[in-house]
Design goal:
Elements lengths: L7 H16 L1 H16 L10 H28 L2 H21 L3 H29 L2 H28 L2 H19 L6 H6 L3 H12 L4 H19 L5 H16 L2 H19 L2 H6 L1 H9 L5 H25 L2 H27 L6 H30 L5 H53 L8 H7 L9 H9 L2
């Protein structure tokens, strides 16, 4: 482990930086799409594409996300959070390297798919690592940095691709990813995963290295819960048939546990809200949307960069805001603003299409207001809420299952947007997105709990009918012996 000369806060920062740079690949991969497509559609390009090819380039990473979400629970459950992060970064490094030398559409499509696999892994992994390794008082701000670095990744790629070729931009992305791989090699393993594996003393040591000596109560409660899980696992029969029956019974029992299905229900709607907020469309089809709203006369590189800069600044503001304001309150208010912004852009585009009113400056301002509402609310809060919801016992599988919905939603929105744009216009598309957000707002208003300044164990127990009852006197000798 690194950072021995620094205090607990700096050590937590070190862990957060490692997973955050990896997650910034989201901004790089999807931001790369927005500038890659126009360059490939240029007849002079060495690789040319039609509209169908363009939509597949945009949407294929979301199919890879689905695969990444499916395999990451097993990887991070069996191999640990650190090794899972290393695998994800390695895949992305190879992918960016292949884009540099790609000379046909097939290669680009294959690489885009495997970039999605890497993103699917880190999407589930990053909030879990930060949630497990950081203090409750700093956890919200640290989780907000995930959306911040995602915005930095978008800004970096949009800026580079506005002035460089797509191969040169991919070279920069390769260098960043390779540096991240070196950085993560020095990070510690998650103390929660160590506890689940029965390595209690090691879990205590890593926890205290990350948190200091003032939060021991949390690691003891994590260990207590882990001991119960291990005892249940060890008590199972070695008979194959009996184990199959027991697995079916356990699955049925698990599906009825509130600490399992309630967080997944909430997570799916949070992901839906984040996907239909408009952030993915504004990232991947930024030039198309900006031309539609502000006109083709606008200075496109400046317009694209200003949107990315505004997104980054707003995310930075969100880091400060999240430490002071409740999660639930912030999500509800910013979602209302997001809905109003989507309807406002839709209304302006409809008026412009019908030749009733047109003002390029007003249209571009509305896009900035939409980006502001997303960057302050749906974008950062998605990572925060997902990082705090899941119980320790089901954390890996819950993250994988809920992230599967994100993959499907990603694919649906990115693949269908060009067709919706051609058939119902931007106004019809954004009106549809606004209606989806209204539905998500109603569900989250009813079910989302407040998680600010609570430990992960307190949040988990809040989903149950009663707090977890652990037999401390019986289990303490077992915990202290390992």
């Amino acid at each position: 482990m690194a950072c021995y000369g620094f205090g607990p806060f700096c050590r937590q920062c070190f862990v957060v930086i490692g997973v955050s740079i990896n997650l910034s690949q989201y901004g790089m991969v999807f931001g790369f799409t927005g500038l890659l497509l126009p360059q490939l559609q240029d007849p002079a390009s060495s690789v040319t594409i039609d509209q169908g090819g363009a939509s597949w380039i945009a949407a294929l990473p979301s199919l890879g996300l689905l695969v990444g979400n499916m395999i990451i629970p097993t990887i991070m459950g069996n191999l640990g959070r650190k090794r899972a992060n290393i695998i994800s970064i390695t895949i992305m490094t190879v992918c960016w390297s292949c884009i540099i030398i790609a000379n046909n559409l097939t290669t680009i499509l294959i690489v885009r798919f495997f970039q999605g696999v890497s993103l699917g892994m880190v999407n589930s992994l990053s909030p879990i690592v930060i949630g497990e390794c950081t203090s409750p008082k700093n956890r919200g701000a640290f989780l907000t940095t995930l959306s911040l670095v995602l915005s930095i990744g978008t800004l970096l790629v949009h800026t580079a691709a506005s002035f460089l070729s797509w191969r040169e931009t991919a070279t920069i992305c390769t260098a960043i990813t390779a540096f991240n791989l070196v950085l993560i090699l020095f990070a510690p393993e998650s103390p929660s995963w160590l506890a689940v594996k029965g390595r209690y003393n090691e879990a205590r040591n890593v926890f205290r290295w990350l948190r200091g000596n003032n939060e021991d109560e949390e690691i003891e409660r994590i260990i207590e819960a882990s001991v119960v899980t291990l005892r249940e696992t060890n008590a199972k029969s070695n008979s194959f048939v009996l184990n199959i029956k027991r697995t079916i019974i356990d699955f049925h029992r698990t599906m009825k546990e509130e600490s399992f299905y309630k967080p997944i229900l909430i997570a799916v709607h949070v992901y839906t809200l984040g996907t239909f907020s408009g952030v993915n469309i504004l990232t991947s089809y930024v030039i198309l949307i900006t031309k539609e709203i502000a006109g083709s006369e606008i200075n496109m590189p400046i317009a694209v960069i200003t949107l990315a800069v505004q997104r980054l600044i707003t995310n930075a503001v969100a880091v400060v805001l999240i430490k002071k304001v409740k999660r639930r309150t912030t999500l509800i208010l910013t979602t209302i603003m997001n809905i109003a912004s989507l309807f406002a852009v839709a209304g302006y585009d409809l008026a412009k299409t019908c030749n009733l009113f047109e003002n390029s400056l007003l249209g571009f301002l509305l896009l900035h207001i939409l980006m502001f509402s997303i960057s302050l609310g749906a974008l950062p809060l998605t990572f925060i809420i997902i990082g705090e919801l899941f119980s320790l016992k089901y954390r890996s599988i819950s993250a994988g299952l809920s992230s599967t919905s994100l993959s499907v939603l990603f694919f649906v929105t990115l693949k269908t947007f060009p067709y919706l744009f051609d058939n119902v216009g931007l106004y019809g598309t954004f009106f549809l997105y606004g209606c989806v957000l209204v539905y998500c707002l109603i569900v989250l208003w009813a079910f989302l709990p407040e998680t600010k300044d609570k430990t992960l164990q307190e949040i988990e127990e809040g989903f149950k009918n009663k707090p977890q009852n652990v037999e401390l006197k019986v289990l303490r000798p077992l915990m202290d012996s390992k």
